[in-house]
């Protein structure tokens, strides 16, 4: 036989004893079911169904054909279910590149929860802020913060991360509390990604060049230096969560904080992203969909 079209529709009609009921079961139109069964009968050269205005019944040929074809449909359903189970039974290694306090404190635990749901999956979480060569390093996706320059990558926004300035109570007691971003020029500032800090001054952005005795591209180290009284730090709000709740740091310049930048999931622009990566990306996007800094 050249085609198996119409067999699923025929079995549905035979079992439900009606075209409308079969269409409802299959989630399609009645006319589609009728058309497919008619084409099947034409290919076979005989009538499978006896139609009347009130009911549909099987002809002798239809009964014989149903007995054989229903096993094919059941086998197809089982095959579909099996391949679906195999798809969601993830295995192999998911390789993720990430850096910063947000990735360590929030993304990593979310991927741990994802890993618990897929016990045959291994996860390699590489803490690295360097530029990633996805192909050579075998990275499935990366978590990055701020502006993205590589147009060859697909970027999905994970969270929007407004900023916060903070300092230790000891530092503020010794050097005073600034009440305007311009006053930061006379303070020791702890620099993370850059020494130009963007503030919102009554709706107008104000770019302040800062300096200080401590610089690090690791947000955890910046927070630690800030707790030890080495200066004022300016980073995404969630970076300071633990320090604020413990009282080791306090917010400053609150009315001037900017909206900040975003954290992104980035991955190669390729047609076939591994299933483990696609499901992990969807999981993270859903996990952080209601994120609040």
Automatic annotation (TrEMBL):
<comment type="similarity">
    <text>Belongs to the LysR transcriptional regulatory family.</text>
</comment>
<keyword id="KW-0805">Transcription regulation</keyword>
<dbReference type="InterPro" id="IPR058163">
    <property type="entry name" value="LysR-type_TF_proteobact-type"/>
</dbReference>
<keyword id="KW-0804">Transcription</keyword>
<dbReference type="InterPro" id="IPR000847">
    <property type="entry name" value="LysR_HTH_N"/>
</dbReference>
<keyword id="KW-0238">DNA-binding</keyword>
<dbReference type="Pfam" id="PF00126">
    <property type="entry name" value="HTH_1"/>
</dbReference>
<dbReference type="InterPro" id="IPR036390">
    <property type="entry name" value="WH_DNA-bd_sf"/>
</dbReference>
<feature type="domain" description="HTH lysR-type">
    <location>
        <begin position="10"/>
        <end position="59"/>
    </location>
</feature>
<dbReference type="Pfam" id="PF03466">
    <property type="entry name" value="LysR_substrate"/>
</dbReference>
<protein>
    <submittedName>
        <fullName>LysR family transcriptional regulator</fullName>
    </submittedName>
</protein>
<dbReference type="InterPro" id="IPR005119">
    <property type="entry name" value="LysR_subst-bd"/>
</dbReference>
<dbReference type="InterPro" id="IPR036388">
    <property type="entry name" value="WH-like_DNA-bd_sf"/>
</dbReference>
């Amino acid at each position: 036989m050249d085609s198996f079209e119409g067999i699923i529709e025929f079995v549905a009609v035979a079992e439900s004893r009606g075209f409308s009921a079969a269409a409802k079961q299959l989630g399609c139109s009645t006319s589609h079911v009728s058309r497919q069964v008619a084409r099947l009968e034409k290919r076979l050269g005989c009538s499978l169904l006896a139609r009347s205005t009130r009911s549909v019944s099987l002809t002798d040929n239809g009964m014989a054909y149903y007995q054989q074809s229903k096993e094919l449909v059941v086998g197809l359903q089982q095959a579909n279910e099996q391949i679906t189970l195999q798809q969601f039974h993830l295995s192999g290694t998911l390789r993720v590149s990430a850096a910063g306090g947000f990735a360590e404190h929030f993304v990593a635990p979310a991927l741990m929860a994802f890993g618990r749901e897929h016990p045959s999956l291994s996860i390699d979480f590489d803490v690295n802020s360097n530029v990633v060569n996805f192909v050579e390093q075998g990275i499935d996706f990366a978590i990055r913060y701020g502006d993205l320059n590589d147009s060859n990558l697909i970027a999905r926004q994970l969270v929007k991360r407004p900023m916060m300035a903070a300092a230790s109570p000891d530092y503020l007691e010794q050097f005073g509390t600034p009440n305007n971003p311009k006053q930061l020029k006379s303070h020791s500032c702890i620099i993370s990604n850059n020494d130009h800090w963007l503030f919102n001054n009554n709706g107008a952005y104000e770019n302040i060049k800062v300096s200080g005795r401590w610089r690090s591209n690791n947000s955890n180290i910046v927070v630690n230096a800030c707790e030890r009284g080495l200066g004022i730090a300016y980073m995404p709000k969630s970076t300071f969560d633990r320090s604020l709740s413990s009282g080791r740091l306090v917010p400053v310049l609150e009315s001037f904080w900017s909206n900040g930048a975003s954290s992104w999931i980035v991955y190669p622009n390729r047609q076939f992203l591994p299933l483990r990566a696609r499901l992990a990306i969807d999981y993270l996007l859903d996990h952080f969909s209601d994120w609040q800094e």
